[in-house]
Amino acid sequence: MPQPNHPPAPIHVVQLTDAHLFADPAGTLLGLNTRDSLSHVIAQVRREQPRIDLLLCTGDLSQDGSVASYEAFRELTAVLDVPTRWLPGNHDEARVMAEVAPALVRAVTDIGAWRIVMLDSAVAGATHGLLEPAQLAALDAALAGAGERHCLVCCHHQPVDIGCAWIAPIGLRNADELFARLRLPRVKALLWGHIHQQWDEQRDGLRLLATPSTCIQFAPGSEDFKVSEEQPGYRWLRLHADGRLETGVERARDFVVTLDFDSPGY
Question: What angle do CA 134, 137, 141 make, to 5 degrees?
């Protein structure tokens, strides 16, 4: 009897973003210890995601760009024991990241029927993002060489208006140049961090996704800087061989968020 053809299992991906770790293990943002919150998120991931094929860490892994902060991030995430990729955010030092974990800072990863492209949108000394010509050229090459693979593109800065007036000026300044390159059937989704909140939008066939921080959360729809007391979290994705994508956000439900607005801020 011929055996039934079962579709390939989807690729299981987890995204962590905006950990903002310090060299000092006691380092806090608004009184929240960022190593502690990251540890709780990772524990939640371990409980909920028995299989992970790839871990994507999309920027602001560090708050101070120190070797010690990146070593701490690498050690805390090592308990997941999965292939991992990093990209820099505006608080990161890309050179230091590459020194601490050179094997993790890779622009293109092929896994199953998918190609994952990691873009560096950080601008030295600035909060906003920009994809330099070299990054756009690398994206062009990665998409052109993808063959039959579906593509997930990742960066740090938001490329769309999310309804927070204060965040708008610190987004990706040349988003139009990015979107012009993503108008290909093989490109299924664009994934980012930076905004410390959840975002999920469908635009012209492209899924646009952002993920809560593993530390403090920014209040959606705020005109001025405002944080919420939502718990830190992560995003999971299931990348199917036929190009379908399933995803969701989970939060560290056992983490108690206590903020101190008189302490040093974000």
Answer: 135
pLDDT tens for 116-133 read: 999 999 999 999 999 999
Strands 150-154 and 187-192: parallel
Report CA torsion sign: 238, 242, 243, 246: negative
Q: What is the pLDDT of residues 29-83, one digit of tens each?
A: 999 999 999 999 999 999 999 999 999 999 999 999 999 999 999 999 999 999 9
pTM above 0.90, yes or no: yes
How far apart, in whole angstroms, are the C-alpha atoms of residue 28 and residue 35? 8
Give the C-alpha separation, 27 to 35, whole Å.
Answer: 8
What whole-number distance in Å separates Cα of residue 132 and Cα of residue 3?
A: 51
Domains of the chain (ranges; CATH) run 11-251 (3.60.21.10)
